[in-house]
User: What shape does this take?
Amino acid sequence: MRDFENETGYSDSPDARKNKLGTTKHLMYAFRKLKETPGLMKRMSTTYPFIEIFCDPLNDYRVSWNWPHTLEMNEQALLSRYFKNKRFINDEALLDFLSFFEEAEELPRIHIRPEVREKVEQAYERKLLADIGSRVTLSFDNIKANLYDYQKEGVRFVTFKKGDFRLHTNPDCVSCFA
Assistant: This one.
């Protein structure tokens, strides 16, 4: 539970990763139970347990940070260096974020959610594939069929993209080019 006023929090469920609401039925249930049990709410700690680095569903899943309390100087310096005095970074800055992981290991209150690492890794994969694609020229010489230009363009398009493109591995098969 991150924000008691707006009833948002973190869940690593598939629903939370897709719904862009910042909440799930599980979080909604927990907040409702807390409201129904005022004594429980009073016993809960109001100090957020860590500086959270997460992909914010309320901000197009940008890498964001949350800490509602006063930061220590070294924490403030690190967050300012990477987040530029904002609560999030734009996707264009993801390639510069890898060193944040190493630096954050020295600060025990910083907790990086797994999807942040995944997002940075995906940014590196896209860049690597784009770099390879800009240096490689595909040859269609081994294909025993006359391909139309749009078919060649389709092959060029999917070759340097990450995705679930399942082409046949049999070099004699032309059905995937038909």
